[in-house]
Amino acid sequence: MTELLTDNQDTKILIVDDTPANISLLTEMLQLKGYQILAANDGQRGIKIATHLLPDLILLDIMMPDMNGYETCQILKSQEQTRNIPVVFISAKSEIEDVLMGFSVGGADYINKPFHEEEVYARIKSLISVQQLNKQLSHSETELKTVLQKYQQQADRLEKIVSHIDNAILEVDAQGNIEFVNPAVSQLFDYNITELEGMNLLQLLAEPFAGEYKQCLLEPGRIEEKQFSSILVKRKDGCEFPVDFSLITLPADEPRYLAIFHDISIHKNREEKLKDLSYHDSLTKLSNRRRFDEFFHKEWRRSLRNRKPLAFIMIDIDNFKLFNDTYGHKQGDDCLVTIASTIRNTIKRPGDMVARLGGEEFVVLLPDTDREGVMQIAEQIRKAVEKQEIPHYSSARGIVTISLGIAISMDNNCDSTEQLYKNADQALYQSKKTGKNRYTVFE
Ligand SMILES: [Mg+2]
Hints:
By secondary structure, the protein is of the alpha/beta class. The chain has 3 domains: 2-137, Rossmann fold (3-Layer(aba) Sandwich); 165-268, PAS domain (Beta-Lactamase), CATH 3.30.450; 280-441, Reverse transcriptase/Diguanylate cyclase domain (Alpha-Beta Plaits, 2-Layer Sandwich), CATH 3.30.70.270. Helices cover 48% and strands 21% of the residues. It has helices at 2-8, 20-32, 43-53, 69-78, 96-104, 117-164, 183-189, 193-197, 209-218, 265-279, 289-306, 320-327, 329-346, 371-388, 417-433; strands spanning 12-16, 36-40, 57-61, 87-91, 109-112, 168-173, 178-181, 225-234, 240-249, 256-263, 310-317, 353-358, 361-367, 402-409, 439-441. A 5-stranded parallel beta sheet has the order 2-1-3-4-5, with helices on both faces. Strand 8 and strand 9 form a beta hairpin. The chain starts with a helix and ends with a strand.
């Protein structure tokens, strides 16, 4: 008995009846079982109490003035707050129509007056336990909904991140078959998403990387995460470009991987561009003094080591100051560009170098070239420039010409690169002095 009292003490039952004696009787009976009792003597008050205090069960009389039990029940069932509270009709009306009417307006049970205490109690108890189970169920359902909602939000967030991220992300199976790609993959490799989903990861990699990763993929469980920097991948058009590449094992029953590509070609291009800028003359695109000095010292040491001649030609445009004064600096620049490309086009061997050291001063370095060879080349260059017939009305010939000075390092005749440079400079001076548009070999 004590146990029952404890069980029921949190359970509220609302009794709605216009006969005070009925209320008293039921109250006494149910209080003995430990229930908390609320009471109302008409339908309106019953609805008010039910709405505010939310009882666990309502015992409802049918025959009441103003609003009868059926009407009261209908209103309770139409309100969100009270819809789920079970309503038990208690009535002297015992015709089958009355009972059916009770159920049809939403009643959960129907008890005839006069009633047996134990029967009333048994029915109440069973309805309340069903009600409590329902409450638990709906609570779990709400909890489940919240959890699902949370997961959904998390998934939505992840999807947004993955679809907006610049890195190309692919999910592949153990054979490398592509199962998911983010939009960046499509942009990077120029395939559309449908094409990609029928492809294998290895098709995106250039050799020898494809072969290397094939092994990785075919030995599942061998990798947790593998990172490779600066590997080559290929676009749909076959064009190859560098990326950083990570392969990560995903937590799943079957082996699966996440492949992430980070495009570094922009970075690489910038690096190469900077290097290019620092080594080239921006006007003529020839190598600049810095590049030339490095090359000169390298070739100098090599010529000594191999006991081979190293030929050096210094070139200066004749009367260039006069040219600039006559035609202006813009024309002067155009002239420099023409002369530069003319010299470069004359020098055919890949091991030779043409550089612009500044102003109208050009140099040509010819490894492993003897006196005869360098004289031939110097004359070719001189003729080639002459053939351009760049007008220069202020000069004696009416066209732009060049003077050349040649020095050759051979059989230890020269101490240093500086010496070779000086010798060529002196030969050039000689060419200028003896009428220009010619070459002189330093003796
Ligand atoms: Mg009544």
